[in-house]
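Q: Start with the shorter request: fold the first protein.
A: Done. Sequence, then structure:
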Amino acid sequence: MGSIRIEGLSRKFKNVTAVDDISMDIRDGDFLVLLGPSGCGKTTLLRMIAGLLEPTGGRILLDGNDITSTPAKRRDVAMVFQNYALYPHLSVGKNLAFPLRIRKVAKDETARRVDEVAQQLDISHLLDRKPKELSGGQRQRVAVGRAIVRSPKAFLMDEPLSNLDAKLRTATRRELTDLHRRLGATFVYVTHDQVEAMTMATRIALLNGGRVEQIGTPEQVYDTPASVFVAGFLGSPPMNLLPATVGTRGRTVVASGDGVEAELWPGQSPQRAVTLGVRPEHLQVAGIVTGTGLRMTARVESIENLGSEQIAYCRVGDAAVCVRAPRPIALLAGQDVTLTAPVERVHLFDGDTGRRLEWLDVPEMTEFDAQLLSR
C-alpha cells in the first residue's frame, strides 16, 4: 500500500507562500504528476512529502498514518533527485546497496535485492563502475534503482529527466512508465514538461501560484480544462482564448466585436463576460456555416511546417489564433478565411474568475430554462 493524503498543506518562506492550503488524495498505485510552471510550488510540495521541508500548516498521511512530523529517514518513501545524488566514490553496486546497508539489512539479502534490481533495470554489467564512468541515462537508472531496492511505499521524483538529451528523455519516459506498471507502486513525479505529464501520468495535478488548479487524468485536464490557466498551459500551441460575451437570441450565443460568433445550446443564459476557448486542432477552414457551432473571420499571418502537420498563425481582431492540421494545410499568408469548430469543441470560462462554465440542465425546469453556471 502507498496511498498519500494531503490535508490543507502550506509552506511559507518569509513573506512568500510557496504552497497555499493544498489538499489532495494520491491513490495507491497512482502515477501522479505535479505539473506547472517554475515557481508554482510543485518541488516544495514534493519535498514536504519526503520530509525534507517542514510544513507551516496542514498534515500528510501515508496509508492513514500521520507522518507530518516524522523525520525523512523514517518515512517509507524514496526520493530520486534531479541531479541523481549518487556517491561518486562508490561503485554502482555499492550505491544500490547503500540504503540497505544503513538499515542493517543482512549481506546476503542485500546482495539478492541489488542483483534483482540491477537485472530489472538492465544495469547488471555496470555494478563495478563508478558514477563518473556512466552516461546520463545510466546514472538515472542507478538513481532509480537505489530507490527501488528499498521497496518503499511511494517513489518521489523531482524532474529526473531534465538533464537528459531529447532522444534519451523519450526512451527513459517509456522505461519509467513500464517500471511503474511492473511495480504497481505509487509514483509522485514533478515536472514542468507537459509532454512528460501527458505520456506518463495516470493523473495530473496542475499547480499555479501554490494552489491546485485541477486534478484529473491527462484526458480530463486536456479535454475539459477547469480554468483559463489550465487551458492556456496545456497543449502546443495552447488553446486559443478570446474575450467575448454570452447572451441569448432563442439560443445561447457567444459573440465578440471581432467577427467571432458561436451559437451553442437551446436555453436561456444571462448576459455576461466570458472567455471563449477552442483548441488549434479543432478549428477548420470553411465557408459560411449555418446552425450551431463556432465561426470566426481570420487573416493568416504565417504558416509553420512541422513535417507531418502545419500550424497557421492567424489574427482575429486583436487576438492571435492558431490552427493545427495535417500537411498540407492549404492556406497562404495574407489570406482571409472563415474558421469553424463544432459546438462540442467550444469551451467557455467565466470572464471574472477564469473558471470553466458548464451547461447544466435542471430537471424541474424546461430545456429553455437551463443556465450557464460557474462550476
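Q: Next, the second protein, separately.
A: Sequence, then structure:
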Amino acid sequence: MLNKVKALKGYKLKCIDGEIGKVKEFYFDDHHWTIRYLVADTGNWLVDRQVLISPYALGSVNNEDQYIIINLTKDQIENTPTLDSDKPVSRQYEKDYYTYYEWPVYWGGPKIWGTCGFSPIIENTQSKGELMDSTQGDKEWDSHLRSTREVSGYNIQATDGEIGHVEDFIIDNETLEIRYLVIATMNWWPGKKILVSPKWIDRVSWNESKVFVNLLRETIKQSPEYTEESLITRDYESKLHQHYNQHGYWIDE
C-alpha cells in the first residue's frame, strides 16, 4: 500500500502505555530514498528535543481514525539518546540510537535495510544481538538524512527548463521506500500534478534546492496525470512506467 507523507502528518502516535504526540515529518536517506525516521511532535512533553521513531518501532497504521501504533513505552522514548531540536542527525548519533535499542543498523550492508532484507521488522526467531553483530563487518554506504518538510518546495529542472516543484512524497508501507515525488506544475500547466520516481532523477543539488531529471518538459507534460483523488493502482503505475520506458519497481523486487 502507498501513502502520502502529508496525509500522515498530524496522525496521533500511540505507544504501549499511552499517546505521545503527533507525526511532524519524516527523515529519509539520499542513497536509497527510504524513510529512516518519523519525527514526533510531542507538544510540551519533551521540549527542545527531536524525538525520532525508527521504522523498527512502527506498528499498524489506522487511516480511518488517523493514528499510528508505536511499539515502545514512554520511558523508552524519554531515555533515548538526546538530540537537540536544532541539531542535524549525525551518524554518531544514529549509532548511539541503534545501540540503545539493540536494533541492526540500516547502513550495515548493501540492501535498503542493511543485512535484514527489505523489511524493518525483526522476526521473533532472530536474535537482536546476532543482527547487531552481523552488521559489523559490512561496508557502510555513505548517505545523508533529508527532511521531507525541507525538500518539499524544491524546484524540478527538466533538460529544457523548470517544470514545477516537489509538493509531496508517496511512500511504500512495506519497505518504507519513497516510490514517487508528487510534482506540482502550477507555474507551467496550472492545476496539473505528476509523479516522478526517485530512480528517474539524474541528480539533486541540495545547495540549490533543485532536482534534475533527464527528461524533456513535453515528455513530462504527456505523462499520466495525478490528482489528490487518484488511487495509485498497479494499472496506473504500469502506464506511468511505460510512458517513461521504465520497468516497474515491483519487477525488480
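Q: Describe the second briefly.
A: DSSP finds eight helices and 14 strands in the chain. Residues 122-138 have pLDDT under 50 and may be disordered.
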